[in-house]
Amino acid sequence: MSVKQGLLALLAEEPMYGARLRSEFEARTGGTWPLNVGQVYTTIARLERDGLVEPVGGADDEGRIAYRLTPAGRDAIASWWLTPVDRDATPRDELVIKLALAVTSPGVDVQRVVQTQRTATLRHLRDLTRLKSRAGDEPDAHDLAWLLILENLLFAAEAEVRWLDHVESTLSRMPLSSLRRSATPREGTDAETADSEARSTPKGARA
Amino acid sequence: MTATSAPVLVLDDVSRVHGSGETEVVALSHASLTVARGELVAVMGPSGSGKSSLLNLAGGLDRATSGRVAVEGVDVASLDPKGLAALRRRSIGFVFQDLNLIPSLTAAENIGLPLELDGWTVRRARSQALDALDRLRLRELADRYPDQMSGGQQQRVAIARALVGERSLVLADEPTGALDSHTGEGVLKLLRQRCDAGAAGLLVTHEARHAAWADRVVFLRDGVIVDETGAPDNADSLLVQAP
């Protein structure tokens, strides 16, 4: 998504000036996506060029111009609501890359990398939970938007912790020797291999 | 939470070892932890990491092999079985995953039971039980039997019982186990509120979203505390940080 769709969605309700578009957009996305006025006007100019919005009359006393959707703009926003967000494009997540490198890099204490991240993510999850617990029990429409955003962040943090738990449990089932192997296979002495295997005590059932 | 008062629960360098020699199993190794009034601390870790051992030691259900466990300043090891039972009745409340309430007793009777066992009259125990229910806004459940309550209501009553009378320490072991996510969240919220009102809570869970209700989260692995989150700053700092 881009700012473009956001502005089209707002203009579908009623004509608005640039400054109002900016404040509405920010308020209704819980302040998670701040815009500057320049961005708003650049976007409006592009939308006008593409025939999706048009000015409503001329400038008012303060020089402000309100914009409204054209029929093509209405079609564009209607189709956006019903088009699923593209999940095929793989986002580059630093944590995923970091752990992928960690398990293939010799000498990295992967378990510690996992635990450090888990602690940090749980701290974040806790702080989000505290924010959420302050939100009222009967939210109005704007509170609801904020709550949905907050819960999305909560679910994402929770999913990350679950994934880290899974990584840890996968690692604990693997012999250390296989973790020491780098992506490009290295020549290791037999003694080294035996040594690292000896240290990988199998996990016994524990009460 | 500002935790200025003396801690309600102290575990100081506590170990618990089962068996010896070849069959020795270390359930908990040199664990130190304090929980103050007004504080909720969560313990997380994989199965077999020592979570339940820690909770059992904190509640005087098990004795440490070494180290010190103190509840409200009383060293648990210094108590004879009778003294320990009294400490559990007066100071500590437990909330488990299920089977918390006695089926043949109403909610109020369940809550008043530890007080009656401690020598209170039925009338006084009931009045305290009703107070506890009032504090949790659960008065309407007073005369219902467990099978007349939902799972969420039963867990709320269990929390009321855990904190009835002078009890100040609640030990919860996966208290949201069988509940759906909304009901489970309600139970956690209640636990959080009781801690905000001055109780001390220790919560064992494997669910990150439940642990997130705590002030601090402690991580156990193979019987060792490997990390902890530390206490929160003001959550408003998050709002300031938001991009």
Automatic annotation (TrEMBL), chain A:
Residues 92-171 form the Transcription regulator PadR C-terminal domain. Gene3D superfamilies: Winged helix-like DNA-binding domain superfamily/Winged helix DNA-binding domain. Residues 177-207 are annotated as: Disordered. It comes from the Bacteria. InterPro entries: Tscrpt_reg_PadR_C, Tscrpt_reg_PadR_N, WH-like_DNA-bd_sf, WH_DNA-bd_sf. It holds the Pfam family Vir_act_alpha_C. Residues 7-78 form the Transcription regulator PadR N-terminal domain. This is PadR family transcriptional regulator. It comes from Intrasporangium oryzae NRRL B-24470.
Automatic annotation (TrEMBL), chain B:
GO terms for cellular component: membrane protein complex; plasma membrane. It comes from the Bacteria. GO terms for molecular function: ATP binding; ATP hydrolysis activity; transmembrane transporter activity. It comes from Intrasporangium oryzae NRRL B-24470. Keywords: ATP-binding, Nucleotide-binding, Transport. Residues 9-242 form the ABC transporter domain. This is Macrolide ABC transporter ATP-binding protein.
